[in-house]
Amino acid sequence: MPKINPSPDFLPGTLEMLVLKTLSRGPNHGWGIAQHVRQVSQDALKIGEGSLYPALQRLLLNDFVEAEWGVTENNRRARYYRITSAGQKHLEAEKRSFAFLLAGIARVMETS
Prior knowledge:
By secondary structure, the chain is α+β, with helices and mostly antiparallel strands. 54% of the residues lie in helices and 14% in strands. The protein has helices at 14-23, 30-40, 49-61, 85-110, and strands at residues 28-29, 65-71, 77-83. A three-stranded antiparallel β-sheet has the order 1-3-2.
């Protein structure tokens, strides 16, 4: 099977949805969020700092996440993000929209 090089771009809103989904498991710092997405997607999705931190800022501005400073497992200072109740509601709406979009793409791909 040929190896597919994943695009660094995400569909609009997808990155924020992945971040919120990751944070729905519990608070995490930026590097931890990126690592979780990479691991769970089996390296199909890699989030760079240049995309992740602006997405986290957008989520903070929309009150979908909260942040506070803490210390990592490696004894380093890091900003930890936590999903808010508004973020949880937004995540559920985004999941429904994304499922609808995926179903539409699948229908197109299944036609001859």
